[in-house]
Amino acid sequence: MIVMKFGGTSVEDSDSIRRVIEIVKSEIPRKPLVFVSACAGVTNRLLRIASLSAEGKKDEANDLITDIKARHEKLVEELIPSDLPKNYLRGKISVYAHELKNLSQAISVIGEVTGRSLDTIASYGERLSSMIIAQAMEEDSVKSMFVDAREFMITDDHYTKAVPLFPVVEERAKKLLLPLALNGYVVVTQGFIGSNGKGITTTIGRGGSDYSASIIGSLLEAEEIQIWTDVDGVLTADPSIVGAARRIRKMTFNEASELAYFGARVLHPKTILPAVDKNIPVYVRNSRNPSYRGTLITKGDGNEEGIAKSIAYKERITLLNLESSRMFLAPDFLEAVFAVFSKYHVIAHAVATSEVSVTVAIDDTSHLEDLKSDISEFAEISSSGGKAIVCVVGENIRYNPGVVGRIFSALKDIRINMISQGASEINIGFVVDENDIEAAVRLLHAELFANPSSQGSPDQLFD
Ligand code: ASP
Question: What pTM does this model have?
Answer without folding.
Answer: 0.89
